[in-house]
Amino acid sequence: MAAKQPPPLMKKHSQTDLVSRLKTRKILGVGGEDDDGEVHRSKISQVLGNEIKFAVREPLGLRVWQLVSAIMFSGVAIMALAFPDQLYDAVFDEEPVSSKTPIRLYGGALLSISLIMWNALYTAEKVIIRWSLLTEACYFAVQFLVTTVSLVESSRIATGAVLLLASRALFILISVYYYYQVGRRPKKV
Question: Which positions make up the signal peptide (predicted)?
Fold first, then answer.
C-alpha cells in the first residue's frame, strides 16, 4: 500500500498580517494604556505589575535618619546590656538601681528594635519603611510618657531626664514626618 503524503504545512499569515496581530494584542489586553496611563508590553507585566509603580519617592534625608536611628538604638541597647548602672545614672541622677535585670531587658528589647531599623535601612519597599518609622515613633512616644510619669512620681527633675524628654519629642516629630512623607502619593506629571 502506498503511503499517503501528508498535506504540506501551511504557514499562518497571522504573524505577518498587521491587522491580525493588532486584534490578537487587543484581545490579550497588551499594548494599550491602562487606567494609570501605562503601556504594558506583555500580559505578564500586567499580572506581575510594574515595579516602577511601587518605587518609593524618598523624602530628603530619610536614609540619613534611618542610619542615625539604627546607630542610636544599637548604641543605647549595648549600653543598657553592658553598663546598666551608668545608663540609669545618666538619665535619672539617682543612686544605683537595686536590680539590673529590668535595664538589661530594656537593652534586649532595644537591640531587637535596632535590628528592624538596620533591615529597614536596606530595603526599598514602602510598607517596610513606613512600619519601621511607625515602630520608632511609637517607641519614642511610650518612652516620653514613661519618663514623664517617672519624673512626676519622683518629683525631682534631673537635667538628663529633661534632655531625654526634649530629644524624644523631637524624634517623634521627625519619625512621624517621614512616615507621612513616605506614604504620600507621588504627583502625576
Answer: none
**pTM of this prediction?**
0.65
Long-range contacts of 89-94 (CB under 8 A, 24+ apart): 90/160, 91/147, 91/158, 91/160, 91/161, 91/164, 92/150, 92/154, 92/158, 92/160, 92/161, 93/158, 93/159, 93/160, 93/161, 94/154, 94/156, 94/158
Let me know: does 171 contact 136? Beta carbons within 8 Å. Answer: yes
Question: How many other CB atoms sit within 10 Å of the CB of residue 3?
Answer: 5
Distance from C-alpha of 112 to C-alpha of 76, rounded to nearest angstrom: 12
DSSP 50: -
Q: Which residues lie across from 33 on neighbouring strands?
A: 39
